[in-house]
Amino acid sequence: MNTATSALEIARAALLESIPADHVGKDLDCVVEPSEDSAVTITSYTFECTSAGYPGWYWEVSVVEISGQSQPTVSEVNLLPGAAALVPAAWKPWADRVEAGDLGVGDLLPPPENDERLTAGFTGLGDLEDISDDLAALHPVQWELGLGREKVLSTLGQERAVNRWFEKLNGPKSAMAKSAPAQCGSCGFLVAIGGSMGQVFGVCGNEFGAADGQVVATTFGCGAHSSVRQEQAAPIPVVDLVIDDLADSQSDSSDLPDYIGDPVQDSSEFDEDADLDETGSGNEDIASEFAMKEAVEAIEAASQFMEMENLDADEAEQEIADFYGDSESDTKI
Fold first, then answer.
1. Total domains, the chain
2. 98 is a domain residue
3. For residue 93, is it within any domain?
């Protein structure tokens, strides 16, 4: 009877018949598989895979031993991924791998059998002959969408389309719709569509709109709405009038002299000589007032000059004397 060691050697020899020796490493483990026949023993021997293209993988050889049989038999040889192996994504059928936007020019995409998105359509009056006793087989959607088509959208298909279109860029949740001045439902560029879908969707017919030629929700909107009006602005820019009220509020006009009008005299009360005399005396009075005013201003200027220069009395007197002269200084002070 063969020992376990001989079975291991048989497994390695079977592996090397089809695998290069440098791709097979040391033996890792052996596991006895459950069997419904007590006379049959199935043992799986695993070996390290040293191929650079399969890191983390291992070889598995199944050896079958039958009671009464002198030589074990190799059942199968497999290359399996380990816990740290790099493996591809799970295989998906082609129909499940197709996504929206994958269809190209010349591609064919038949719907699957019993597609829940479709239901039988009402194709002609001849259909009534077969179901004249039971018109309940016709769904209301079929009547609404008209004749001539073998299949039409089912209720489930319509619901999916509505949810899908609402979530897209032309739905009410988009940033464009939230900033629009009005909604497509009140826009003159909206092309209405029939059926129940036309209650919530239409087609944009504005070449300058954000969704020209696309299905849009009636609650969508953009800046090209038909009710948008251009603001009428003045052709010449006008600067706003600025009035400085602060200066007027701070002045109480206390520094202005009171106005006194000249008395009106009758020209018959004086003659030409008297007029000349009064004119001459008036000029002398005015000259005297101006001289007095100049003297006061000179004294104030000298006082300020003395205070600024911190002069004592003698120095101030000398400065005033030098400024006006000795004789004039004595007279004016």
1. 3
2. no
3. no
Distances (CA, A) of 270 to 27, 266, 277, 282, 285: 152, 8, 11, 16, 20
Bridge partners (DSSP) listed for residue 109: none
Strand partners, 69: none
Segment 183-215, tens digit of pLDDT: 999 999 999 988 788 888 999 999 888 889 999
Task: Answer yes or no: is 179 within a domain.
Answer: yes
Count CB atoms within 10 A of the CB of residue 15.
Answer: 19
Contacts of 76 (CB under 8 A, 6+ apart): 61, 62
pLDDT tens column, 49-73: 999 889 999 999 999 988 888 888 8
Within 13 A of 128's CA, how many CA atoms are on the CB side? 4
End-to-end CA distance of the chain: 154
In a domain, 90, yes or no: no
Q: Give the largest Cα separation in the chain, rounded.
A: 175
pTM confidence score: 0.39
Domain boundary among 34, 65, 81: 81
Query: Which residue range(s) make up the domain with 31?
Result: 4-81
| 30, 77 Cβ separation under 8 angstroms | no
SS3 at position 31: strand
